Amino acid sequence: NLGTLYRLQGDYEKAIPIRRRELSWRRQHHGETDIDALTLINELAIDLREIGDLGEAELLFRELVEGRQMLLASGDSETGRALAGLAKTLELKGKFEEAATVAKQAIDCLLANQNPDECLINLVLLNLARLVYKLGRKAESLRLLKTVQTSITSKTEPDDTDRQLLANAAALRDQIEANP
Question: Is 0.85 topped by the overall pTM?
Fold first, then answer.
């Protein structure tokens, strides 16, 4: 759709009003928990986070999590993604403790899925490791980084995303070990 096209071009000033109109229409005609409305909420929340409107992004991510939990199973990967988006937004707002709690909920949700998205789980684990390090919990952070490393290195054919996650995990581990 047009909102996505503008987002891909980095033109959030055009994408956001389009998404707001689409969401308003979708809610009016299909209700608050329509699956497509939830998708639009997610897209709008991401766009707002990208331009730094963290307050509204947080509210939308909370609405998204609630809607996904009402509509879908608690172990649904989309609910896990919504929780991960909320955790990232909370981190950007400096709410590290709450972000860590929500990231743990995202991991639990993603792991409950019958076909867990290992790449997303590793990404959320890496973000959680960064969060707990910011909270001064170095041992916990190192344990989480080891989990990411083991998960990726146990794959027979890690892809480029896996290799990037592994490099980011190594960089964070080096940073932690360099700062006693």
Answer: yes
